[in-house]
What we know:
Blueprint: E1 11-15, E2 20-21, E3 29-30, E4 35-41, E5 44-48, H1 50-71
Antiparallel strand pairs: 1-4, 2-3, 4-5
Amino acid sequence: MPRIRSLVTNVQIDIVQRAHECQGNGSHKLTKGQRRLAVRKDRGWDNYCLECGKRILERDAAKIASLLEAINGSVTVVPDDD
Length: 82
């Protein structure tokens, strides 16, 4: 049986170890002990505050829902808005 891949295997919620800026908005500061969204990128991680992380996840959830509609035949073409 072929291995089933996932689109979200390289995303996690973790704890900030040292203070730094959110990579989605430099004015959002992350402090030690806070939770953050960590997204694997190449050999490292991009880290986002929960506010930016929530926006990213909501946008991607909508994109996945559109793709599912296209697979189910409800929509003919799903535009790529990146």
